Amino acid sequence: MEVISNIYNGLKGDKSIWFIVLMLGICSMLSVYSAVGFWAKMHMGGNTEYYLFKQMLFILAGFGFMYMAYRFNYMLYSKIAPLLIMITIPFLIYTLGFGVDINEARRWIKIPLINQTFQTSDLARLALIIFIARTIAKKQDNIKDLKGAFIPLVIPVVLVCMLIAPADLSTAALLFVTCFLMMIIGRVSIKYIALLALVGIAGLSLLILIGTAFPEVVRIETWISRVTDFLNGSTEVFQVEQAKIAIANGEIFGVGPGMSMQRNFLPYAHADFIFAIICEEYGIVGAVVIIFLYIYLLFRCTVMVTKSPKTFGSILAIGLCLNIVIHALSHIAISVNLLPPTGLTLPIISMGGTSVIFTCISLGIILSVSRYVEEYSVKEIIEEEHAVDEIEADDNQIVGRNNLKYENYY
C-alpha cells in the first residue's frame, strides 16, 4: 500500500484522468481475454493467453509512452508540430499506394524486422490535432482573417482527411469533426467554419467521383452498401445482428466474465464490436461504467482547459480528448446499431497495437497540460498569499507609525 501511495503522490496533473486510464487498461485486458476466444481458435489453436499477453504488452508499452509524453513540457509539441505533419503526409501517401491490404483496405504499412503493421492514420490524427492547436494559438490576433488564419487551418485538415478517407472514411470523418470543433472553440469566425464544412463536402464528393472511376483506390462500393443497408434497416448485416443478440443476452447484470456466447459468432469481437461483448458479459451496468469513463474524461479535460493560462494548451488538450471520446462514442453507437458498421475500435479497450499506443500518447499529452495547469494554479495561490502577506505587513507598518505619532502627540 505504501508503494501505491508513493506512486499516487508522485504523479502530477489530474488524478482523475490517471484513474480513468488505469481503469480503461484493466477493462481492456479483461475484455480482450474473453472476446478473443474464437479468433484464437482460428489463428492460434485456441491459445487465448497469447493474445492476452500481447495486449498486456501493448497496454504496458502504451502506458510507458504516455508517461514519457506526460514528462515533456507540452509546449515542445508545438515546436515539432510542423515536422510531424511533414512526416505524416508521405506516410499516408505511401500507405495508399503500397500499404498492407487487409479486408480490402490499405490502412497499414509493415514495419521491417519486427514484422508488425503500423496504422498511419493513428499518427496522422495526433499530428493534425497538434498542428491545428498550434495554428489556432499562433493566429489568435487575426483568427478571423481569411488568408492569415483560415487558409493555414483548412489546407492541412482537408489534405490529411482526404488521404485517410479512401481506405478509412470513418476515421477521416471523425478527425474532420474534431478539427471542426477545435476551430469553434478557438473562436474562428462562424462563416469560415461554414466554409470549411462546404470544403469538406466538396472533398467527399471528389472522392466519390474518384471511387466511381477507380474503385480499387477508393472503397466507394463498401461505403454505399453499408449506408444503404443501415438506412433500409437491413437484417442481412451479420455483425449487427450478432451484436444485437450479445447486448440482449447481457440484460442488466450480464452473463458473467468469460461467459459470452456471441464471441464465437461475432466477427472481430475483440476489436470492432468489443462493446457488445462487454454488454453481454457485464450487462447494462458494465456498459454504463464504460460510457461514464469516457464522458468523465471529457468532463475533467473541460474543467482543466478552463483553467489553462495558454491558448495552445487549452486547444491541444480539448482537441485530443474530443478525438478519443468521439471515437469511443461512435464505436458504441455502431455496436447498438445507431450508426453503420465501419470498423472503429474502442480506444484503449479494443485489441490493437498502434491504436493503443497513440491513444496513450494523446492521454500523456493531456496529462502534461494538466500538470502545467496544476503547477500554475499552485504558483498563483502562493503569489496571492504572498501578496496578501505583503499587504498585511504594509498595513501593520502603517498602524505602527500611526500609533507612534499618537504616542508622541500625547
For the largest sheet, list the strands in their spatial order: 1-2-3
Shape: globular
How many domains would you count in the coordinates?
A: 1
Computed structural class:
mainly alpha
Q: What would the average pLDDT be, to the nearest integer?
A: 83
Strand proportion, as a percent range, falls in: under 5%
Strand runs, count: 3
How would you spell out the order of helices and strands? Answer: HHHHHEEEHHHHHHHHH
Q: Which sheet architecture does the biggest sheet show?
A: 3 strands, antiparallel
DSSP helix count? 14
Q: Level of helix content? A: over 70%
Question: Radius of gyration from the CA trace?
Answer: 25 Å
- Taking pLDDT < 50 over at least 5 consecutive residues as the criterion, the unreliable ranges are 380-385, 387-393
Cα separation of the termini: 67 Å
What would you say this structure looks like, in words?
The protein is mainly alpha-helical and 410 residues long. The chain has one domain (11-409). It contains 14 helices and three strands. The chain has a three-stranded antiparallel sheet. A hairpin with a 2-residue loop joins β1 and β2. α12 runs antiparallel to α13. The radius of gyration is 25 Å and the shape is globular.
SSE topology sketch:
Elements: H1 2-10, H2 15-35, H3 37-43, H4 48-71, H5 75-98, E1 100-102, E2 105-111, E3 116-119, H6 120-138, H7 146-164, H8 169-185, H9 190-213, H10 220-231, H11 238-250, H12 274-307, H13 311-335, H14 354-409
Antiparallel strand pairs: 1-2, 2-3
